[in-house]
Amino acid sequence: MEGGPLLGHTHWVTSVAFSPDGRRIVSGSCDTTVRIWDTQVQAMVGVPLLGHTSRVTSVAFSPDGKRVVSGSWDKTVRIWDIAGVLRRHGQW
Amino acid sequence: MEGGPLLGHTHWVTSVAFSPDGRRIVSGSCDTTVRIWDTQVQAMVGVPLLGHTSRVTSVAFSPDGKRVVSGSWDKTVRIWDIAGVLRRHGQW
Amino acid sequence: MEGGPLLGHTHWVTSVAFSPDGRRIVSGSCDTTVRIWDTQVQAMVGVPLLGHTSRVTSVAFSPDGKRVVSGSWDKTVRIWDIAGVLRRHGQW
Amino acid sequence: MEGGPLLGHTHWVTSVAFSPDGRRIVSGSCDTTVRIWDTQVQAMVGVPLLGHTSRVTSVAFSPDGKRVVSGSWDKTVRIWDIAGVLRRHGQW
C-alpha cells in the first residue's frame, strides 16, 4: 500500500506538503528542522535544513518548486533555496 | 444542505484536503489513521490507512491525485499510494 | 488598508481558505461552525453551517468551488454543498 | 543555502504561505500581526498588518495574489488588500 515510513525527524512532524511537480515533499518538525524528501526513492534529499531554533509550525513550497518557506516558534520565517540544496547533492 | 457526517475516525480529525479532481477527500486524525473519502457516495474508500503510531497532524494530496502524504507525532512522514488502494477496491 | 473584521464566529477561528475564484472565504472555528464569507461585500453568506459538535480544525474548498470540506474534534468529516447554500440565498 | 531568518514577528509564527506568483510570503503570528515578505530582497514589505487582537492561526493568499485572509483567536476573519499596501510603499 505504501513504502515504509520516512525516517529522520527526531520530534513531531507538524506540517507536510507536496512540491508542485509531485516529486518532492517538505516537512516541518518540532525538532526545529525542515526536510525535503524524494517521493520516488522514498528518502530524504540532502541534509536537514538547519536554522530554526524552535519548533517549525508551517511549511509550503513556492509555485515553481524551487523554494520552501517555513514558520517557527522562534518568531522567524525562513526561505530555503531547494534548487541549491539539490544541486549540491547532484539531485537537480 | 449537506449529507450526514462522514463517520469512521475514532478521535479528533486534524487535517482535511480535497483531491485535485474534487472526487476524493483525505483526512488525518489523532486516531493515527489517514482515510480517503469519496465525495459522490459520501463514504470511506477502502480501509483506514494504518502505519502511523501517533496522531496525524497534516495531510495533503499529490498534484496528480494518486498519492497522499501525512505527517505525524510519531516523527515520520508517510507517502500513501491512493491509486493502489482504490484499484484493490475496484474504485479507480 | 482593509475592511473591518468579519464578525460572526463566537470562538477562535482555526482555519481559513479562499475559494478558487477568490470570491468566497471559508472559515472554521472552535464555535463548531463553518462559515462562508463574500469578499466583495465583506459579509457572511447565508447562515452558519451547523452540524459539527466540537471544534472545527481544518477547512478547504473543492477545486470547483462548489463544496467545502471540514474536519472536527467531533471525529467527523463533513462535506458542505456551498452552491446549494448560495442558491437558497440568491447568491449563486 | 538560504538567506538569514526573516525577522520581525515578536511571538510564534503559526502559518505561512507563498503568493501565487512566488514573489511574496504571508505569515501569521501569535503576536497578532500578519506580515508580507518579499522573497527577492528577503525583507518585510510595508508595515505589519494590525487589527487582530489575539493570535493569528491561519493565513492564505487569494488566487490573484492581491489579497490575504487571516483567521484569529479574536473570533474574526480579516481580508487584507495587499495590492493597496504595496502601492503605498511603491512596491506594486
What report would you give on this structure?
Four copies of one chain form a homotetramer. The first copy, chain A, is mainly beta and 92 residues long. Chain A contains one helix and seven strands; from the N terminus they run βββββββα. Chain A has one helix at 82-88; strands at residues 13-18, 24-29, 34-38, 43-49, 56-61, 67-72, 77-81. In chain A, strands 1-2-3-4 form a four-stranded antiparallel beta sheet, covered by helices on one side. The model of chain A has no long low-confidence stretch (mean pLDDT 93). Chains in contact: A-B, A-D, B-C, C-D.
What's the end-to-end separation of chain A, in Å? 28 Å
The residue fraction in helices of chain A comes out at under 10%
Structural class of chain A: mainly beta
The backbone outline of chain A, from C-alpha atoms, is globular
Major beta sheet summary of chain A: 4 strands, antiparallel
Low-pLDDT stretches of chain A: none
Number of strands of chain A: 7
Please, how many helices of chain A? 1
Task: Determine the most extensive contact between two protein chains.
Answer: A-B, 27 and 28 residues
The rounded Rg of chain A comes to 12 Å
The pLDDT mean of chain A sits at: 93
Question: Short summary of the structure?
Answer:
The structure is a homotetramer of 92-residue chains. The first copy, chain A, is 8% helix and 45% strand.
How are the elements arranged and paired?
The structure is a homotetramer of 92-residue chains.
Chain A (H helix, E strand, L loop, with lengths): L12 E6 L5 E6 L4 E5 L4 E7 L6 E6 L5 E6 L4 E5 H7 L4
